[in-house]
């Protein structure tokens, strides 16, 4: 987990934006794909583009590859949900010989993020990727990947501008949801003057920004707060000290088992709020919440205060994300996952930065 010695030479990992613009202009049947377990940036990107494209007489379908297919409760307010198509329906159409003109994959750094819809990547004659994760693996016939972008919705807005498509309140709502969440409510260091200019432009469309924030952050049943309280009570703080005595980054961990959720009658996505609550702890330089799926696997949600690149760590375990928020899925028991995280942080502490005295 060695930290980079400086900013990358370029923040744009791949720029086929001209080709993507041409591909969209030439397509009449488009599928927009968010990643599995979609967050506001992934689904907001797909729905925003989906709401705008029919102005070009394009048939649009939006999906994500979760099985079972279930919309996260916190995203139920987003406009354009009528565009959602269950993955089984798309796969049946592919089996029957249907092919979309264009598949656009949004906010996904690797093909496994397509979940059960991975076959679509081979079925579509052209696959385009819009993403901002440094863990991008290079897939897609066309890609526009800029790690300096605060969100994938920011890239979607730039694409809409290139296509000459106008904003309205519904499109802006979807874009704002992704922007506010991927900047941590404009608290992460990826927030720049351009980020606030984008937010102002979206606010000018008449969006209800206070309602968006309430639905994303403050709209949970009391059972979810009880689950959160249990998870916080069993949270552990792990200190790391280098052999020379230098204190290292502190790790805060907790777990939410499938049994915990079942006891409160809650779906998996509700547990995502717990990592945001724990990252507020003073000790939490890195936060890890292990959430168990109904099938038994554990989703590892990571947050960083900025000193540690959790996206780089997640990418080593077939996951993804960026410097401040990332994750992966594992079948290992929680104690092994926590041990892995502690080992990674020890390695970071024990390795002096380049140029430091031995």
Describe this structure in words.
The protein is an alpha/beta fold and 358 residues long. The chain contains 13 helices and twelve strands. The strands form two sheets. The chain has a six-stranded mixed beta sheet. It has a six-stranded mixed beta sheet with strand order 7-8-9-10-12-11, sandwiched between helices. The longest helix has 17 residues. The two termini are 18 Å apart. The N terminus and C terminus are likely disordered.
Q: Please give the count of helices.
A: 13
Helix and strand run: EHEHEHEHEEHHHHHEEHHEEHEEH
Radius of gyration: 20 Å
Shape: globular
Structural class estimated from helices and strands: alpha/beta
| Integer average pLDDT | 90
Q: Tell me about the biggest sheet?
A: 6 strands, mixed
Uncertain runs are: 1-9, 350-358
Terminal CA distance: 18 Å
Spatial order of strands in the largest sheet: 1-6-5-4-2-3
Strand content: 15-25%
Number of strands: 12
Q: What percent of the residues sit in helical stretches (DSSP H or I)? A: 25-40%
């Amino acid at each position: 987990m060695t930290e980079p010695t400086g900013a990358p030479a370029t923040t744009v990992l791949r720029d086929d934006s001209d080709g993507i613009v041409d591909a969209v202009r030439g397509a009449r049947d488009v599928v927009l794909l968010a990643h599995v377990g979609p967050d506001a940036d992934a689904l907001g990107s797909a729905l925003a583009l989906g709401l705008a494209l029919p102005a070009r007489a394009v048939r649009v379908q939006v999906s994500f590859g979760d099985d079972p297919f279930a919309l996260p409760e916190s995203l139920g307010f987003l406009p354009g949900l009528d565009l959602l198509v269950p993955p089984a329906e798309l796969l049946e159409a592919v089996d029957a010989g249907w092919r979309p003109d264009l598949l656009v994959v949004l906010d996904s750094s690797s093909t496994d993020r397509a979940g059960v819809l991975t076959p679509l990547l081979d079925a579509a004659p052209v696959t385009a990727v819009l993403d901002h994760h440094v863990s991008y693996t290079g897939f897609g016939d066309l890609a526009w990947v800029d790690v300096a972008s605060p969100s994938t919705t920011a890239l979607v807005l730039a694409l809409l501008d290139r296509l000459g498509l106008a904003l309205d309140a519904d499109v802006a709502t979807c874009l704002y949801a992704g922007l506010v969440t991927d900047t941590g409510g404009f608290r992460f260091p990826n927030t720049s003057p351009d980020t606030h200019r984008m937010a102002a432009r979206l606010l000018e469309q008449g969006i209800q920004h206070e309602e968006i924030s309430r639905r994303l952050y403050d709209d949970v049943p009391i059972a979810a707060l009880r689950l959160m309280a249990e998870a916080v009570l069993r949270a552990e703080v792990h200190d790391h000290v280098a052999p020379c005595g230098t204190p290292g980054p502190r790790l805060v961990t907790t777990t939410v088992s499938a049994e915990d959720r079942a006891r409160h009658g809650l779906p998996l996505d509700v547990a995502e709020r717990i990592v945001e609550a724990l990252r507020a702890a003073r000790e939490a330089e890195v936060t890890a919440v292990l959430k168990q799926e109904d099938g038994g696997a554990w989703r590892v949600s990571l947050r960083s205060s900025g000193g540690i690149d959790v996206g780089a760590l997640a990418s080593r375990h077939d996951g993804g994300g960026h410097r401040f928020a990332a994750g992966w899925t594992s079948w290992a028991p929680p104690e092994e996952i926590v041990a892995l995280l502690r080992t990674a942080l020890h390695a970071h502490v024990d390795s002096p930065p380049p140029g430091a005295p031995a």
